[in-house]
Amino acid sequence: xxxxxxxxxxxxxxxxxxxxxxxxxxxxxxxxxxxxxxxxxxxxxxxxxxxxxxxxxxxxxxxxxxxxxxxxxxxxxxxxxxxxxxxxxxxxxxxxxxxxxxxxxxxxxxxxxxxxxxxxxxxxxxxxxxxxxxxxxxxxxxxxxxxxxxxxxxxxxxxxxxxxxxxxxxxxxxxxxxxxxxxxxxxxxxxxxxxxxxxxxxxxxxxxxxxxxxxxxxxxxxxxxxxxxxxxxxxxxxxxxxxxxxxxxxxxxxxxxxxxxxxxxxxxxxxxxxxxxxxxxxxx
Length: 284
Description:
This protein is an alpha+beta fold. It contains 13 helices and five strands. The chain has helices at 4-25, 50-57, 61-68, 77-86, 91-100, 116-125, 145-150, 164-170, 172-177, 181-198, 203-215, 217-224, 271-282; strands spanning 130-134, 140-143, 235-240, 244-254, 262-268. The chain has a five-stranded antiparallel β-sheet. Helix 8 (164-170) packs antiparallel against helix 10.
């Protein structure tokens, strides 16, 4: 008797086969650089043949046929990505193909400069709450003025160090403001460790780990413990030189169109604290 897990896997494989057949049917040979049939109507079914998809993606015809039939066969990211290229899949369809194959979504490129204004409008819109957005490497993309005044200003750092981990482990001003720095730093490191483990060959991660290991004894010690922990709701406490004692409730939000980006919103825990931050923002 099959378990619910087995049934779920079978359903996903069937959906994968249906998806591949549908995308194959939408293409003509000329779309992928193959010669069109000399006799109109010669093809019994619309779209590319299985043999053509297999040839274009560099896989065996039998293997590809079994994949479309929903059989329980092994797949790899390289082969699935080759099928995506052969079938001329756009980003949305490529991510869906990977999902059906049980793989992680393909890496996204760093947001281009034309995307940053939209992200900046978002973080500015939540002021006077404190907000920033960083990418999959924990590199800052945008932040609002409240973030720069209350937490720290990433513009003070070189471009390759505008990163949440560098802020937590090397910014002495931020560290001095936090009444409980260690639990917060450990939590950030645990989330970062999980991301690095998913992409151990990523050169940006390698650079960050090497730099932080050399710069921070705490990072070096805790990194070797291999901590793993996803984000959990928390409240941090700051002793700010201008605003005084501030408690901030932490929220993480992912954008639907870019789930690899994380928006962190830090909400003052009381109206009085919110008013103190507002006064700082209104000061000349």
